[in-house]
Amino acid sequence: MFDTHVNLHGEAFAEDLEEVLARARGAGVRRFLAICDRFDNFPSVYAIASANADMWCSVGTHPHHAKDFTHVTAQMMIEAARDPKVVAIGETGLDFHYGYSPEKEQVSSLLEHISAARDTGLPLILHTREADDLMADILEAEMAKGAIRPLLHCYTGGEGLAQRALKLGAYFSVSGILSFKSAKDVRAVMGDVPIERIILETDCPYLAPVPMRGRRNEPSYLVHVAEALAALKGMPVDEVKEITEANALTLFDKVGAA
Question: Which positions in this protein are listed as binding a divalent metal cation 1 (predicted)?
Answer without folding.
Answer: 5, 91, 203
